[in-house]
Each structure stands twice: as C-alpha cells, then as structure tokens.
Design brief:
The protein is globular, with a radius of gyration of 23 Å. The chain is an alpha+beta fold and about 280 residues long. It contains eight helices and 15 strands. The protein is about 20% helix and about 30% strand. It has helices at about 1-5, 80-85, 90-115, 150-160, 165, 175-185, 230-235, 250-255, and strands spanning about 15-20, 25-30, 60-70, 70-80, 125, 130, 140-145, 170-175, 195, 205, 210-215, 225-230, 235-250, 260-270, 280. A seven-stranded mixed beta sheet has the order 7-15-12-8-11-10-9. A four-stranded mixed beta sheet has the order 1-13-14-4. Strands 2-3 form a two-stranded antiparallel ribbon.
C-alpha cells in the first residue's frame, strides 16, 4: 500500500522479480552459456525430412546458483507517554505509516546502490570493492562523452549497449536534475530527444524507452553514474522474508523518562542475478 502510494519516489520493487522465502537466504538458479542472442546454451540443428541418423547436436541448459541473503532493517522512535495518552488522533497509526514510508524509500536506494554488506546488493553497489555508485561486475559501462553533461549520443550508445532481448522491457532511472537536463537535449535537426507520454498514466520516454525518477541516483558530475538502463524483471530479485512489524516497548530505559519506544522491523534481501541485463551511463572524468 505504502509502496504503491510512493511510486513517484520508489522505482525498483514494482519492476523487479519479487519472491518470498521462509529461510535466511534464497538460492536462485541462473542460466549460463547465453550470449547477446540466446539466453542459454540451448541451440537448434536443422535436419533433412528423414535424417539417416540422429544428427541433431545435443545442447543442454547449464544452471548456476546465486545466493541472495536476507537482511534485517529496523527503525526506532521514542514518544512521550503523555502524548500517546492525550493525542486526539491515532499516533501509532501515523508512526506506522511513517516507518513504512521510510523503509520503502530506503529499500529503493539499496536496490540501486547497496553494497550487499548487511544490506541488499544494488546494480551500482560494487561488492568487490565495497563501493557505492559503481556498477557490479558484468554491467555494461557506457560513457556520456562529457564530464559535466549528458549527451544525445551518450544515450544512444547506452540504449544499444544492451542486447535486444533485454531492451524490450528496459527502463531508464535518473535523478531529478539529470532528468531535467535530459529533457533539454536535441538531435542534429534541433528536435528534442525527449518524448512526452501520449496516454495518461504512461511514462515519458528517452531514446524510445520509459524514464523513471529516483533521488537515490547520482547527479551529473565527473565520473558519476547518472543512469541505470535495464530490464529489472530479468536482472534483479527482491526476496521478502518478514513484512514490517511495529512493536511498542516500555522498559527500564523508557519508563523513567515517561517515554514509549516504537520499533519497526523488516527482513528482506535484494540482488543482481543477471548483470548483463543492465547498462550504466557514466560521465567522463
């Protein structure tokens, strides 16, 4: 409910593959042996109408496994006992909504840039080097050609750096100011590259593909990654373990101060399973 209401500021969950688990991790199969044309190692053989022998070459899908760990996220707020008793509105409901909002916004940030160290592993969360805002191994890196601006040529290079099998469901994710500057881009004939959505409720497009805004993305600066372009359904898994709970606690640390502690808690994971389904646009150095 909260996430649906926040679709203007959260992007990933509604577009990635979401699974549930009863364990502390999810083992997920990943197809190997594919390339820019095929998604797996399976191939076909053309034969005559009545071949003299079994001439079809045997090909088999090869599966690897990736482990998606489950992490715990919490929030705490102390409230005055008097405020809870005297408030004319349901303060606990309001706090539950605020906790859910904060967790929805934060999970989106982790799916984009989380390093996987005690938190989800994002597309721009380079686990090998423990660095945020650097693409994970296997994500295609495309340069804008400028250290201080996005360019029309950079966007065209970005789109066509992604294999056709992933472009069909690919989207752009940009920061607000990057989106603003992107809307001003023009082609060689002075026409805007940006295309306005013609149907109510449908996203606008950039270089022919839907555009979504996230304040969790870097803004334009030297070396910054300013756009993730990719197919989240194919490339990213969100694993839910325990939904958000809110617990009201009164103990020796709060009673003496006439306070009640509210704890929100949730368990989930997120991980890139197919980095080749994404490309990242980087400003020049």
């Amino acid at each position: 409910e909260i996430i649906k209401r926040l679709m203007g500021v959260t992007v990933v969950r509604g577009r990635a593959r979401v699974v549930t688990t009863t364990r502390d991790a999810v083992e997920w199969p990943v197809l190997l042996g594919g390339n820019n044309i095929y998604t797996s190692a399976v191939r076909v053989t053309w034969v005559d109408e009545t071949p003299a022998s079994a001439t079809a070459t045997e090909t088999n899908p090869t599966f690897g496994m990736t482990r998606i760990p489950i992490h715990t996220v919490m929030a705490r707020t102390n409230l005055s006992q008097n405020l809870l008793e005297d408030s004319a509105f349901n303060l606990l409901d309001i706090m539950s909504g605020l906790f859910a909002e904060a967790m929805a916004v934060d999970e989106d940030a982790q799916f984009l840039t989380g390093t996987g160290a005690g938190r989800p592993y994002g597309v721009l969360g380079d686990r090998a080097n423990g660095a945020q805002n650097s693409p994970v191994t296997g994500v295609t890196d495309v340069n804008t050609g400028s250290a201080s601006a996005v360019t029309a040529d950079g966007y065209i290079d970005l789109v066509y750096s992604l294999p056709a099998q992933y472009r069909a469901n690919a989207i752009h994710i940009l920061a607000r100011t990057t989106l603003r500057d992107s809307r001003k881009l023009k082609d060689g004939d002075g026409r805007y590259v940006w295309q306005a959505g013609l149907v109510a409720g449908q996203p606008q497009t950039l270089a022919g593909y839907p555009v979504y805004e996230s304040e969790n993305m870097d803004t334009i600066a030297a070396n910054a990654y300013v756009d993730i372009f990719g197919d989240w359904r194919s490339g990213y898994i969100v694993a839910d373990r325990v939904g958000m709970t809110v617990e009201r606690v009164k103990d020796t640390t709060t009673v003496g101060t006439n306070q009640v502690a509210l704890f929100a808690r949730r368990r989930l994971g997120g991980q890139v399973i197919a980095p080749w389904a994404f490309s990242a646009l980087q400003c020049s150095s």
